[in-house]
Write a structure and sequence with these properties.
about 350 residues, Arc Repressor Mutant, subunit A, 2 domains, 5-stranded mixed β-sheet, 13 helices, about 45% helix, globular
Length: about 350
């Protein structure tokens, strides 16, 4: 099936897809969504139009047949593409640039004004694919002060507000980035709660991909290719680590239980989760503790539940992360309605 899109505004884009499918789309705050019917597949396609020139398109579906999405010449944004499951083929710059994304791969692409581009998504298989669209004319005002510390090519990319030059980068992204997308897919709230929550995660996702690009360009020798065999062991190690926050294993014990040597585990863990093992565990413990506090647990109960026996140590760590002592956390959250709404999403999904 061929889908023709004449512009990149997310809401209009989803409405155009719906019209070509002979379906209706639904609007909910910043989200425009299509729930596919059985004639075209199953699952959903959604978009969110945020502030500062950032928007998001999400495919979480299985299509009945291959789709070829043709983008005609329009105000062309910058694409940050993330594939979790399935496959995606992308052609642009009048056919000069062609590539395929596989699971846990991402790309940053820019198509020059005056040239068309197309994407192909396969039918009969699960697709989980996200595009962050960046309107550089709007977004440049937000990040202009940050570009001094950015690699030259990426700086030039963001400053190319008239879309004069092509750009292509492809690489692996961290599992923590895929987990951001997973949170968007799993969230079942609506209205301002969902839109605010998804916007925060989208900004996190964008920052992770920019950081990944920076690392790849500045420190190419640190790039690490992880075989699928080792990837599964490292993911298993993460699951073991989090299975009992009260009694998490040491790194040595974790390596033995997951069947991988310590050095490879530590390097691989940092590569795919963008964090050392200990920092990752600390962050998860504190996040879980914050949710327990929101659910009404006392500071002592929350600390013990996530593995902190020393309450003073727990309070220091908590304040470093959240800027407030755990005894004052709930009051701080409740003073900010949007923060409270997002916190409730996290609490209800934990």
């Amino acid at each position: 099936m061929k889908i023709l899109l004449s512009e990149y505004k997310p809401r209009k884009l989803i409405k155009s897809i719906a019209k070509q499918l002979g379906q209706d789309s639904a609007t909910d705050c910043l989200e425009e969504r299509i729930d596919l019917d059985t004639t075209t597949g199953n699952g959903k396609i959604a978009s969110f139009d945020f502030s500062n020139g950032i928007s998001l398109i999400l495919f979480d579906c299985m299509l009945q047949e291959d789709w070829q999405i043709n983008f005609s010449d329009a105000e062309i944004p910058l694409f940050f593409n993330f594939l979790i499951e399935g496959a995606m083929w992308h052609t642009y710059n009048n056919g000069d640039i062609r590539y395929q994304l596989n699971p846990l791969e991402g790309s940053i692409t820019a198509c020059p004004q005056g040239s068309a581009q197309k994407m192909r998504l396969p039918g009969k298989q699960k697709i989980r694919f996200t595009i962050l669209l960046i309107d550089r004319k709007v977004y440049i005002d937000k990040i202009d002060c940050m570009l001094e510390d950015t690699p030259e090519k990426l700086t030039m990319l963001f400053e190319d507000v008239d879309a004069e030059n092509p750009f292509f980068y492809q690489g692996n992204y961290s599992i923590s980035a895929s987990e951001c997308i997973g949170k968007i897919i799993k969230d079942n709230h609506d209205g301002i709660i969902r839109s605010t929550y998804v916007e925060g995660i989208s900004l996190e996702l964008l920052s992770k991909q920019i950081r990944q690009y920076n690392d790849d360009m500045l420190y190419p020798e640190k790039q690490m290719v992880i075989r699928n065999y080792d990837l599964e062991k490292i993911k298993s190690a993460r699951d073991i680590l989090l299975s009992d926050l009260k009694n998490s294993p040491t790194i040595s014990q974790l390596a033995k239980r997951s069947g991988i040597n310590q050095q490879k585990l530590k390097k691989g863990f940092k590569a795919i989760f963008s964090s050392t093992i200990n920092k990752y565990l600390t962050n998860v413990r504190l996040e879980q503790a914050s949710l327990l506090l929101l659910k009404g647990c006392s500071v002592k109960e929350a600390a013990l539940e996530v593995g902190y026996i020393n309450h003073s140590h727990f309070s220091r760590k908590f304040k470093l992360k959240y800027g407030v002592l755990p005894k004052d956390y709930v009051a701080k959250i409740n003073k900010d309605p949007l923060a409270a709404a997002v916190a409730k999403v996290e609490a209800s999904s934990s």
